[in-house]
Amino acid sequence: MNEAKVITHISDWLSSYAKKSRTNGFVIGISGGIDSAVTSTLGARTGFPLICVEMPIHQDEKQITRARNHIDWLMKNFSNVSVETTELTPIFDAFVNALPASDRTQREMALVNTRARLRMTTLYYFAALNNQLVLGTGNKVEDFGIGFYTKYGDGGVDLSPIADLNKTEVFALGKELEVIESILTAAPTDGLWGDDRTDEDQIGASYPELEWAMDFNGDKSSISDREKEVLSIYRRLNKANQHKMEAIPVCEIPELLRKQ
Hints:
Helix 1 crosses helix 7, helix 2 crosses helix 7 and helix 10 packs across helix 11. A four-stranded parallel β-sheet has the order 3-2-1-4, sandwiched between helices. About 55% of the residues lie in helices and about 5% in strands. With about 260 residues, the chain is an alpha/beta fold.
């Protein structure tokens, strides 16, 4: 991959979309991870106003530090970048306290997704306030491989600049863009659990492994036991999360019923 040309291509695509839509730039949530770091830098390169939003919810301190350091780096290098910090922990806690008690395991997962949806709501507040577009930070494996995102949470965006790039390609762009070292070397995490668990901890496979599984169409009998395990993980998640990747089902009314 020609990283420099891909960077120019994406930034030009973003600029073109903003001009056609007659909007005033972009809004993005900054997590301290590689995907939001690369996407925000690509947005900043357009010259359009870019609002970087911090939205901590019981956040791990290392993630907060990386996010702030990245925003500082962006603002040092791009005059069109600004920052908004919205502390969502009190809102999240109040919401949790208003909910009825339920099964602990199911409740925990539901609340993880709630964090992502609160953040989506916050981003769209700033987008509406400034007539801007919300930038998505999902990569190809997350968005179209295993559906590793929250429906109407981090999946609720206006534009997806890096959704045709694998995670390893996103890291390659990060190096080319000179994203800060602490982000380039950090283990990928969705930051939704309030601890330091990684994406690999949750999924059971690394992104390079998942990228291999996404492209695999060979003879399963010829691969290693680990590759079989990864393939099984990928196919299970891909099947389970099709509801995220397909259009919302619409119940179509037969014309015959309309005439009766």
